[in-house]
Amino acid sequence: MSDFEQVIAECKQKLEYIANDNSVPRNIRRSANEVLETLSNGKEPLFLRTSSSISILEDISNDPNIPVHTRTLIWDVASQLETIPVDE
């Protein structure tokens, strides 16, 4: 389980960077904070937190106003979250 927690920690770090980057539109930063809260919610099963987070990330990655460097980070976070198996 520690491998998955390491993935979550890395993802949270990238999301915090996005959430605190003033060059990123406010709605994208708000969504990054939403994903952070979702991933931090220990009451939900891990697979549910990751699938909800991936869904939000896919939505915001399609925003036409998102800076290219932020879109790349979001794709990276989503890819990392997709490595967490659903049956955990």
Automatic annotation (TrEMBL):
Transmembrane segments: none
UniProt cross-references to Gene3D superfamilies, sorted A to Z: Ta0600-like
A Pfam family annotated for this UniProt entry: UPF0147
SUPFAM superfamilies reported for this sequence: Ta0600-like
InterPro entries xrefs: Ta0600-like_sf, UPF0147
Family affiliation: Belongs to the UPF0147 family.
Protein name in the entry: UPF0147 protein PV02_00965
Native source organism of the sequence: Methanolobus chelungpuianus
